[in-house]
Write a structure and sequence with these properties.
heterotrimer; A mainly alpha; B mainly alpha; C alpha/beta; A: mainly alpha; 10 helices; about 70% helix; about 0% strand; elongated; disordered N terminus; B: mainly alpha; MetI-like fold; 2 domains; two-stranded antiparallel ribbon; 13 helices; globular; disordered C terminus; transmembrane helix (chain B); cell membrane (chain B); BPD_transp_1_N (chain B)
């Protein structure tokens, strides 16, 4: 008796880029990513070079104008984007790795779970900005403490997301089936459970990137992040606020850059999330 | 309800204890310590030693921790050596301003969230739903220092209708007081209203896809009642859960908003203390923030349990 | 048909480009129960939704009409539509759990339904709500009104759903698979209620189901649907006893029945030691507040090599717990399992893992959605030491052939297969390690009847060919009877009766077995209608009176509830004892209730 499998028409892949919003967000993120990556090439001037033209408005020579020390704002904003992305990507990558590691160990050993959950409970007891402030208090100002703040605030969230994904699947029939057919615990965990759990992590990582930009901006804005003369979006914005009445156009560059970055990551994360949910409901 | 609270409390106290140890430990690890901050960079070793002894920083760490904790519990806070004022007074003054700002922001956030969330899920016009959702995404993504700056530009510089910095207590002058309050509170409320509004909209959307909504429709229930009586009770509990965490974020976000609007609250005090290396003040403020955050979470859980009695009964099928 | 209250004329429904319903005609009169029968994808549910104009956004009525007392419902305004929904046509859904709002009390539910149709003041509505609950047979309605749905059992929830649908006294009641989520003994009562509604309230009832037995027991006329078309239509007696259309004939032939001669099963090996021995197995769970739930209570049985032991029970009987404990998915709380004399725990040797395999109930959940079929089948091979890639690939081809699938499919993922095909893959995976004992946990209960029959045939064929010993678990006595040598009946975690399949189903010893047999839907409409509501009180809730008495005492048709002199059932727990050679029952009055006797008591 041979029954030939008749394929059920494969469901149309529910792409992330189905909505126009998601496509725009991806475009924004890509453009800003390139701008940050090639900030050195794209910048017309050295972002730290001071000139005599203080607080000028936008012009042919200085597209975004100059700041209170006569530095070219376009160059500063481009380098600021670079700083934000470096700090964000590094912090979020480390947070993601730590999160996955902790989640996998937690899912494997109950004792690891107890320890990890307690540690993360303590970390999550600090609102992310307060945590960042605490980190700055200890490590001082600068890119390292921002990165550490991002790691400490995002790793627990990443771990929870992955752990929840692993635990939700652990008693699913397919996981039980794998165990019963003799597949070892590590292989079940890594091959059968982790891939699905990582879907949710991808969404979280993108959202964490927006939090990272948010944290950098916040810390630098209140003066405990990147310190001048090094540019970062947060400290440029902070400087611009001082001269809001004198030169309102000063604020445009950093304001738009931060908004675009955070918004881009958020919308992209939402789109990924929706796509994952649609895919999940069909599976 | 009480039993549930009692069951949750030990875990919270343990977290709080561990957090306090962490805060204490961290503030002792700091390189540029309080002592140098007071004594200045070219102080003699003798001066430094004297200040260290004065602040009790020469004692063994466990003893220092115990004294700190004991002081906190008995209300005997030390003096801020840097600002040369009693820490208790500093905090009390700041806390009043911060609580005022936070409460105003929370009320504003709840109102905005409800309006945006309900519109975003239930408006019959796709355009209105899309607009409400876009507003929420935007408000969520834009950090308070950005929206605050924008608010200042618009309402302080371009059309100067509100004062953009400082605070007048509404107790002294209600009319002026609220004018100073509007912009910072709005700035603080925006992201929170967006989070809550989105959860509400998603919850309503979810409720509309549930079988029980189909049942109600099949019974001929009107759309307005469908929303208020059948969908909302199911959409609200998750909003409440997030609300607790968001209130904590409000408190945290106030640090930045206070800096931006020159609002004399604990947030400003904290930033100031860090820049001054005033660690005795820093550790107190951090612990207050964490305690407030945890208590809010506990209260939310309790509210949640009250709303959803199934939690109390054990099963959450 | 002039006296019809609802008429569906040449109805055509499309979902996007797909035609779900194509030219369906039927009419229903007041006081009549009309059955619509069809397998999944037949479009039967779309008809009900179309009658309320509640098709999902992607669905459209593209032809024909639904006429209520001659008026086309397509012409109704928004307001008239609300009157139609609930007011003229009531609708009962399949899953009574998700169809009731968990946040609203039963009283609130009923009040909303009454208020939507302007039925009186708040006090009047409350009185009416109480009446409605009484009407649908819910005891203590005053108290129930205040409770939320999760406090009610499945059968009670479905009764509440019916009360809701009847609240505004509609002329037509659609019930879409109203008993599919319920146990057979509970379903009987709900079906009886629907019949009573038609009879006493003169409501026209349209019963949509996949289950021929449900139609046979309840309906006067029946419409048979297949892929959106009506293939046969007529009086129940005509259609079910003298089916004209080959589809109906095939469907009827595929339904497992209790009154057919037993199939010939190859003999088992009586001489040797039992392959599997279960002795005193218990499993308790600890609830969140420390209360204990006993799901398996001191169960002992054994399976000989080559034998198929059927295990029958309703939800909460512990049958899946037993299956999974034997498979090694979880540990028992007490008792022992022996396989060829060797102790079985959850930590078992590779050889024991190889020898005992499990086929899962839900073929959708038991395959990893991302994993290609080939990879999924290779997993157990790799785990059991088949290192050579080529050898594994060959074995996968062999396995797929064995279960009747084209080996070409090994590159595909589960989403590309139908339910029956997935179950074949599940079976292939279980067979990969060449097991000696195959445990099938409700292997066909989530499949359509016609697919079900083919999977059962496959399992029987594989057993004969490979010499498998099987533990076959199902809620459906008729299915179990077809494939098993012996049958064990579980109720609420306890073994009630154990005996040869033929004798046990023909002359049950235990009153619970009798109950199960009477509740089992039979596709034969000429069989005497069963004395439904007299039979069982309450529902199995997984937590019956524990301790001293018989777990079935409170629901037993010959127990202390009916006969005052049988206090012993509450006081002393009956032991499982041998009443005839090879036939065991745990009842103080084993054999005293036979089927004819119940029918007399009706």
């Amino acid at each position: 008796m041979t029954v030939v499998a008749v394929a059920v028409p494969a469901q149309r892949r529910t792409g992330v880029l189905r909505s126009a919003r998601a496509r725009v967000a991806l475009g924004v993120v890509v453009v800003l990513g390139l701008a940050g990556a090639f900030a050195g090439l794209l910048s017309p001037e050295d972002p730290r070079a001071q000139t005599a033209r203080l607080l000028t408005g936008p012009s042919g020579a200085h597209w975004l104008g100059t700041d209170e020390l006569g530095r070219d704002l376009l160059s500063r904003v481009l380098h600021g984007i670079q700083v934000d992305l470096v700090v964000g990507v590094a912090g979020v990558a480390v947070a993601g790795l730590l999160g996955v590691l902790a989640a996998v160990l937690s899912a494997r050993w109950a004792a690891a779970d107890v320890v990890a959950q307690r540690v993360f409970d303590v970390l999550l007891a600090f609102p992310s900005l307060i945590l960042a402030v605490a980190v700055a208090a200890v490590l001082g100002t600068g890119m390292v403490s921002i990165t550490v703040a991002i790691v400490l605030s995002q790793a627990p969230i990443c771990c929870r997301v992955v752990r929840a994904g692993l635990l939700a699947q652990r008693d699913r029939d397919y996981a039980v089936a794998a165990r019963l057919s003799g597949v070892g615990p590590w292989r079940v965990l890594l091959r059968h459970l982790l891939p699905t759990a990582l879907d949710a992590l991808v969404v979280q990582l993108v959202l964490s990137l927006s939090t990272a930009v948010f944290l950098e901006g916040g810390m630098s804005f209140v003066g405990i992040g990147v310190r001048p003369p090094d540019p970062s979006l947060g400290n440029i914005l902070q400087e611009s606020v001082q001269y809001l009445t004198v030169r309102p156009s000063f604020v445009v560059g950093p304001l738009v850059a931060i908004t675009a970055l955070v918004l881009g990551f958020t919308v992209l994360g939402d789109a990924l999330n929706n796509a994952a949910r649609r895919g999940g409901s069909q599976a | 309800m009480l039993r549930y609270a009692l069951r949750r409390t030990p875990s919270m106290l343990l977290t709080l204890f561990l957090a306090s140890v962490a805060i204490f430990g961290l503030t002792r690890l700091v390189p540029g310590s309080t002592v140098t901050a007071i004594a200045g960079s070219n102080a003699t070793p003798a001066t430094i030693q004297a200040i260290t002894r004065d602040l009790g920083l020469d004692r063994p760490l466990p003893e220092q921790y115990w004294r700190w904790l004991h002081g906190l519990l008995t209300g005997d806070l030390q003096r801020s050596a840097v600002l040369d004022q009693p820490i208790g007074q500093l905090i009390a003054r700041g806390l009043g301003a911060t609580v005022e700002l936070t409460v105003a922001a929370a009320v504003l956030a709840a109102l905005l969230a409800f309006a945006l969330g309900v519109l975003g899920a239930t408006s019959r016009r796709a355009f209105v739903r899309g607009a409400a959702r876009s507003v929420m995404t935007f408000a969520l993504a834009v950090p308070p220092y950005v929206s605050g700056t924008a608010l200042i530009v618009v309402f302080g510089v371009l059309l100067p209708v509100f004062p953009v910095g400082g605070r007048i207590s509404p107790l002294q002058d209600p009319e002026l007081g609220w004018q100073y309050l509007v912009l910072p509170a709005l700035c603080l409320a925006l992201p929170v209203s967006a989070v809550l509004g989105r959860f509400l909209a998603d919850g309503l959307d979810q409720a509309f896809t549930e079988d029980f909504t189909r049942t109600a429709t099949a019974l001929g229930v009107r759309r307005a009642r469908l929303i208020t009586v059948h969908a909302l009770p199911n959409a609200l509990p998750p909003v409440l859960t997030v609300a607790g965490i968001q209130l904590g974020n409000l408190l945290a976000g106030s640090a930045i908003v206070e800096a931006l609007f020159a609002w004399p609250g604990v947030g400003q005090l904290l930033i100031q203390a860090i820049t001054n290396h005033d660690y005795l003040l820093v550790q107190d403020l951090l612990l207050i923030a964490v305690t407030a955050f945890l208590v809010l979470q506990l209260l939310t859980d309790l509210g949640q349990a009250g709303l959803d009695q199934r939690t109390r009964l054990g099963g959450r099928s | 048909m002039s006296d019809a209250v609802l008429e569906v004329r040449d109805l055509r429904i499309e979902f996007g480009a797909r035609t779900a319903v194509d030219g369906v005609d039927f009419a229903v009169r007041p006081g009549e129960v009309l059955g619509i029968i069809g397998e999944s994808g037949s479009g039967k549910s779309s008809v009900a939704l179309a009658a309320l104009r509640m098709l999902p956004a992607t669905g459209r009525v593209t032809g024909g009409a639904v006429l209520l007392r001659g008026t086309d419902i397509a012409a109704l305004s928004e307001n008239e539509l609300r009157d139609l929904r609930g007011g003229e046509i009531g609708l009962v859904f399949q899953d009574p759990m998700s169809s009731l709002n968990p946040m609203l009390s039963i009283g609130r539910h009923l009040d909303e339904a009454l208020r939507a149709h302007g039925k009186g003041s708040a006090a009047e509505r409350r009185t009416r709500a109480t009446e409605l609950l009484e009407l649908v047979g819910i005891p203590d309605p005053e108290r129930r009104l205040r409770e939320r749905p999760h406090r009610l059992s499945g059968g009670q929830r479905q009764r509440v759903m019916i009360a809701l649908a009847l609240a505004a006294e509609p002329a037509v009641l659609f019930a879409d698979e109203p008993t599919t989520a319920l146990d057979a003994t509970t379903a009987v009562g709900v079906l009886a209620l629907l019949k009573r509604v038609a009879r006493e309230l003169d409501t026209a009832v349209v019963l949509i189901t996949h289950d021929i037995g449900v139609v046979a027991a309840t309906c006067e006329r029946v419409v048979v649907m297949r892929t959106g078309r009506v293939v046969e239509h007529g009086a129940v007696e005509d259609v079910l006893l003298r089916p004209q259309h080959p589809y109906t004939q095939g469907l009827l032939a595929a339904v497992p029945r209790l009154d057919t001669p037993l199939p010939k099963l190859s003999g088992m090996d009586r001489s040797t030691e039992p392959l599997l021995e279960v002795s005193g197995l218990s499993k308790t769970y600890r609830g969140r507040h420390g209360q204990r739930f006993t799901v398996l209570d001191d169960v002992s049985l054994s399976v000989r090599p080559g034998e198929t032991l059927g295990i029958v029970g309703e939800s909460g009987s512990g049958k899946s717990t037993l299956a999974r404990a034997v498979a090694g998915a979880h540990a028992a709380t007490a008792g022992a399992l022996r396989f060829r004399g060797e102790e079985l725990t959850t930590k078992r040797s590779a050889e024991l893992r190889r020898a005992i395999q499990l086929v899962f109930q839900d073929p959708y959940a038991s395959l990893h959605p991302r994993m290609r079929i080939g990879t999924a089948l290779e997993e157990p091979l790799r785990a059991h030491g088949l290192r050579d890639r080529r050898a594994r690939a060959d074995r996968v081809v062999e396995l797929l052939r064995e279960v009747g699938l084209d080996p070409e499919v090994s590159r595909r993922r589960p989403a590309e297969f139908s339910g029956g095909q997935r179950q074949r893959i599940g079976i292939a995976r279980a067979l990969a390690t060449e097991p000696d004992l195959l445990i099938c946990d409700e292997p066909v209960s989530s499949l359509d009847v016609s697919v079900q029959a083919r999977i059962l045939d496959l399992l029987v064929e594989l057993r004969e060919r490979l010499g498998l010993t099987m533990l076959f678990i199902s809620h459906d006595l008729a299915v179990v009877r077809q494939v098993s040598h012996r049958i064990a009946v579980l109720y609420s975690g306890s073994l009630m009766e154990l005996g040869p399949a033929g004798a046990l189903t023909a002359r049950p010893l235990h009153p619970y077995t009798v109950t199960l047999l009477s509740a089992a839907p039979s596709p034969d409409p000429s069989a005497d209608r069963r004395p439904e509501e007299l039979l069982l009180r309450g529902e199995a809730n997984g937590q019956p009176a524990r301790g001293t008495g018989c777990p079935f005492a409170n629901r037993c048709p010959i127990g202390p509830v009916v006969r005052d002199d049988r206090g012993i059932c509450r006081d002393r727990r009956p032991e499982l004892s041998e009443h005839e050679p090879g036939r065991f029952a745990a009842c103080h009055f084993a054999g005293s209730l036979t089927r004819p006797m119940i029918e007399e008591s009706a």
